[in-house]
Amino acid sequence: MAQLCGARSRGVGTSAALAALAARFWSSGSTPESVQERQKRLMARGVPKQKAIPGVKQVIVVASGKGGVGKSTTAVNLALGLAAYESRVGLLDADVHGPSIPRMMNLKGNPALTDSNLMIPLVNYGINCMSMGFLVEETAPIVWRGLMVMSAIEKLLRQVEWGQLDYLVIDMPPGTGDVQLSISQNIPISGHCFIGCRTSSKHVSKS
Question: What is the pTM of this model?
Fold first, then answer.
């Protein structure tokens, strides 16, 4: 500041003084932070660190923008296809509000617990399956929101004795929301399959 005031008193322009100070700053060895680096650093503060599920090598998510397009059917067939190649496969039903994997995998009952209080998946066709449908009555409505849903997803992911799996296929709920964000931010995902529905223009109602 004193240099700047002195520069003004000697008749040197302000812009020239600022340029001289900037040149001294950059020549002192300091490295400027780029806009991209700053954005990356700031965004990393609010994003949780991804943590792998113990024993699971690869995670594949099956998602859709809307319901009724065959997402769960695709997830089941994908799991069965991987198991046909002698892979160790798990299937997680992350659709808390409308679990369909128990019916599609022909499974009923409540999961048992290990000595360490981890849920043991139900097995059919050689696939380890876990769903909220195993924990509530089939006709019982689930009206959870926010933190309750996040807590349930965390338990289904990390409080299950998955064992050693080559693939864990996750049947995501339809649409986009907290569940999708939570899963994608908290665990490393190896691949994804997005199910869409082709709509002809003649089937779109005109308003």
Answer: 0.69
